[in-house]
Amino acid sequence: MVFTWLQLAIFLFLFGGLLFAGGPLILSWIIAPRAKGGDIGMSYECGMKPHGRAWNQFGISYYVYALLFLAFDVDVLYLFPVAVWYPHAEGMMSFYKVAIFMGVLALAIIYFWRKGVFTWPRKIS
Predict the structure, then answer these.
(1) Considering the entire predicted model, what is its pTM?
(2) Are the CB atoms for 64 and 117 separated by under 8 Å?
């Protein structure tokens, strides 16, 4: 087998990619502090010492609403380029594509509504 310049370049880029990806991981493992206990295990609250029970867990509703907002917000961002290009499009195909996209979004909202995601749970004391 003859070793060519192309194979050398492939091996060099492979080695460089592995070094680029694994180098920071290995370096942080080598130079990271090994201290345990004290403030290391304490929860982080904006750089201040926590007050009271620091390990309170928030209800899942907050996270569900945040994820739903992000999902629909990103989907709506796809509509901005479409709205800019829509006057220049010819034919009805672009209208059908936008209608299908909006239909899928509407079906997702209906699905989440039926599953009860948008109802905020009442706190029982």
Answers:
(1) 0.47
(2) yes
Amino acid occupying residue 1: M
Please check whether residues 21 and 47 belong to one and the same domain.
yes
Alpha-carbon gap, residue 13 to 75, rounded angstroms: 36
Among 34, 56, 78, where does a domain finish? 56
The CB density around residue 50, as the number of other CB atoms within 10 Å, is: 13
Question: How far from the centroid of its chain's Cα atoms is residue 57's Cα?
Answer: 21
**pLDDT per residue as tens digits for the range 7-41:** 999 999 999 999 999 999 999 989 987 777 776 66
- CB contact set of 82 (below 8 Å; sequence gap of 6+): 94, 97, 98, 101
Distance CA 34, CA 67 (A): 35
Under 8 Å between Cβ of 49 and 61? no
C-alpha to C-alpha distance for 25 and 59, rounded to whole angstroms: 34
DSSP state for residue 17 in the 8-state scheme: H
Domain count, the chain: 2
